[in-house]
Design a protein that fits this description.
Strand content: 25-35%
Distance between the termini: 37 Å
Number of domains: 2
Strand order of the largest sheet: 6-9-7-8-10
Oligomer: single chain
Number of helices: 11
Radius of gyration: 21 Å
Helix content: 25-40%
Largest sheet: 5 strands, mixed, barrel
CATH superfamily of the largest domain: Spore Coat Polysaccharide Biosynthesis Protein SpsA, Chain A
Structural class: alpha/beta
Order of helices and strands: EHEHEHEEHEEEHEHHHHEEHEEEEEEH
Shape: globular
Number of strands: 17
Length: about 350
């Protein structure tokens, strides 16, 4: 089994802590290791050091190699430019395909929090067994616990197969990030899962799906594959990435495929996509939370349901509710917790106003 960590995202909704040179997957938000290091530790028992691949950006590849010194340097794959998850996963697939086209490849994110690591591994192992026994594209769905508007949803249909006592369902449809009322309707109806963006498949099955549903990407990936480990590899990869669309794997392939199934996840899962997510997973007692590795003291006076990410100075909150305060060396963010999805607007305005030194 091979595992690919997709680690090229920017995490704009965790600004100002998440920046271009230190995106959220490199942040230590809980525990002693970065989100990326935690992701690697979760999958290494499944794939081993030689079976671990990381797909990331040109800027981050050197950092990833330092963080994972035992992983073969060639397994840290740098994209020429960002092109969403379809091409990132494809880059991992063509490398594994050279070794064994029938090998099972799992793809996971680099920026999630999971407490039940054993449950996570068990679900990936179920997915691997499904992928081995048939021509399936397997996704791992997470049981929703709240009407979250920042996640996509998967609607499960009939039972497609079963591994032991674990049912695996055909996927009826993907649902885009909904408004709160729609998300609540999904919870009330049942049969919906959060889209974790964890996938498992035989490499041959995945590449066949690329050929059928995303032929331009498929041709480009085969061009890159033919140039691997040659003097032309970098040039060919740049040409291919410049020409293909920037599409997530969901829209490029999965929404079109008839052989997509979902393994219901039995583990806790948070895609730390915004600051309110950090409030939800904070472990401190009480209704106010302090997160991160900053050394500055935090005082709450007559305040409740607040989250503070301090830097190195004192922060005091008096008489406020449901606020997020994020302090960094050169920027401070303050917002109501229910406006967590709107932080990206600040990032957009910084770009528009030529203030990219803060990104």
């Amino acid at each position: 089994m091979y595992c690919a960590i997709i680690a090229g995202g920017g995490g704009t909704r965790l600004w100002p802590k998440s920046r271009r040179k230190q995106p959220k997957q490199l942040l230590t938000l809980q525990g002693d290791a970065s989100l990326f290091q935690q992701a690697a530790e979760r999958v290494l028992p499944l794939c081993g050091i030689d079976g671990l691949l990381v797909v990331t950006s040109q800027d981050l590849a050197p950092i990833m190699r330092r963080l994972l010194p035992g992983v073969p340097p060639a397994n840290i794959v740098a994209e020429p430019m960002p092109r969403q998850t379809a091409m990132a996963i494809g880059l991992a697939a063509i490398r594994v395909d050279r070794e064994d086209p029938e090998a099972v490849l799992a793809s996971v994110g680099a920026d999630h929090l999971i407490a039940d690591v054993a449950g996570f591994r068990r679900c990936l192992e179920i997915g691997a067994r499904v992928a081995e026994q048939g021509d399936y594209l397997v996704t791992i769905g997470v049981q929703p616990t709240a009407p979250h508007t920042g996640y996509g949803y998967i609607k499960a249909g009939r039972e497609a197969t079963r591994i032991g006592n674990a049912p695996v369902y055909a996927v009826d449809s993907f649902k885009e990030k909904p408004d709160r009322d729609t998300a609540q309707g999904y919870l009330d109806a049942g049969g919906y899962y959060w889209n974790s963006n964890y996938f498992v498949w035989r490499v041959s099955t995945l590449l066949n799906a690329f050929e059928e549903f995303a032929p331009a990407m498929y041709r480009g990936l085969r061009r890159v594959q033919a140039a691997l480990d040659t003097a032309d590899e970098e040039r060919v990869a740049e040409e291919v990435f410049a020409a293909v669309p920037a599409d997530p794997i969901d829209t490029a392939i999965l929404e079109k495929a008839g052989n997509l199934v979902v393994v219901p996840g039995t583990f806790d899962w948070v895609d730390v996509g915004n600051w309110n997510d950090m409030y939800v997973v904070a472990q401190e007692a009480g209704d106010n939370h302090t997160v991160g590795d900053g050394e500055g003291p935090v005082l709450f006076e007559d305040s409740r349901d607040c989250l503070v990410h301090p830097a190195n100075r004192l922060i005091a909150l008096v008489g406020v509710e449901n606020l997020v305060v994020v302090d960094t060396e050169d920027a401070v963010l303050i917002l109501p917790r229910d406006r967590d999805q709107d932080v990206r607007r600040i990032v957009e305005r910084l770009r528009e106003q030529g203030l990219e030194r803060f990104l």
